[in-house]
Amino acid sequence: MSQNETGLRAALEPRLMGAVGSAFEALDFDACRYAGNWLGLALYGALGHRRSIAVNNIRLALGESSARANQLARRSCVNFGMTFAEFMHARVASPAEIARRCSEAGYEHVENGFAAGRGVILLTAHVGNWELMGASAAQRLSLTVVARPTSNTGVQNFIDASRAAQNVAVISKYENGRAPLRVLKRNEALGILPDQHAGNEGALLPFFGQPTRVWTALARLALLSGARVVPAFGVRRRPFLSDGRIVARIFPGWNVESAGDKEAAVLAGTRRVVGELESIIRAHPDQWLWLHRRWREADGAKLPS
């Protein structure tokens, strides 16, 4: 892409984001869900290369046939379309709207984590609607999430403003560890989504039986702070179109503890993170975002032909 094309894209993307956001803000959550359904189907049809990545990911991880993998990839795109539309609307949604749209099961596990006074790390993933779960959680607790910023500052500003409107604070994943540690030291909640490829700095671990690079930052923060790790996932209820509400499924928490070898403790904690992610994805395979290159030949993964 030329420098002029890059500059044009940087100028147009925030305007497009704002126009799309304004359209979804004018709708209610039900209308957004229906519009998001069609957006997701269009996305599935348009993203040829990414669709192939998603289908191959599903075949690799779950051992599904090509036909079943295509079906799950299509439903995953539908969920993503709904999630995008709901996120666009959430900036202007009232607390009552959010509460009607998102419920929870297992909040006592979060309360148990706070009881120790060292903060709670919410282990979550790109499953269901993670953004709406965060907006709902922020009505009950002080929530900061660690997120990777987009390459476009204007688009990122729009995303940050949408999260700020729901009282969700954001720390860039590229900041040093002091910022998230301060959140935990205040006995607040820190949300982390470690389900995407970690790059060369990640630990090489099996994920659904295939080697891939996994973020160790969550386990490292838990070890340094003593914070409780509480898995929580914003699962979409079925049927997507006639219901589609979000349930925050919260599971019993655990701690990363060292018997002297800190790196071994971090690795063991990261393996447990992987296990939690595998469990929720197996339970809701059509709600995870399969479009990214989670498994790579450079890591030793044997990709389907």
List the keywords.
single chain; 305 residues; alpha/beta; seven-stranded mixed sheet; 9 strands; globular
What does this structure look like?
By secondary structure, the protein is an alpha/beta fold. The protein has one domain. Helix content is 51%, strand content 15%. The chain has eleven helices and nine strands. The protein has helices at residues 3-25, 29-46, 48-62, 66-90, 95-101, 108-115, 130-137, 153-165, 178-185, 217-225, 262-283, and strands at 102-105, 120-123, 143-147, 168-172, 189-192, 203-207, 210-214, 228-236, 246-250. The protein has a seven-stranded mixed β-sheet, with helices on both faces. The longest helix is centred in the N-terminal third of the chain and has 25 residues, at 66-90. The radius of gyration is 19 Å and the shape is globular. The relative contact order is 0.16. The model has no long low-confidence stretch (mean pLDDT 93).
Q: How many separate helices?
A: 11
The largest pleated sheet is described as: 7 strands, mixed
How many discrete structural domains? Answer: 1
Query: Mean pLDDT score, rounded?
Result: 93
Mass-distribution shape: globular
Tell me the structural class.
Answer: alpha/beta
Strand order of the largest sheet: 1-9-8-2-5-3-4
Helix content: 40-55%
Percent strand equals: 15-25%
Distance between the first and last residues' Cα: 29 Å
Q: Provide the gyration radius in Å.
A: 19 Å
Please give the number of β-strands: 9
Please write the string of helix (H) and strand (E) elements: HHHHHEHEHEHEHEEEHEEH
Contiguous uncertain segments of 5+ residues: none
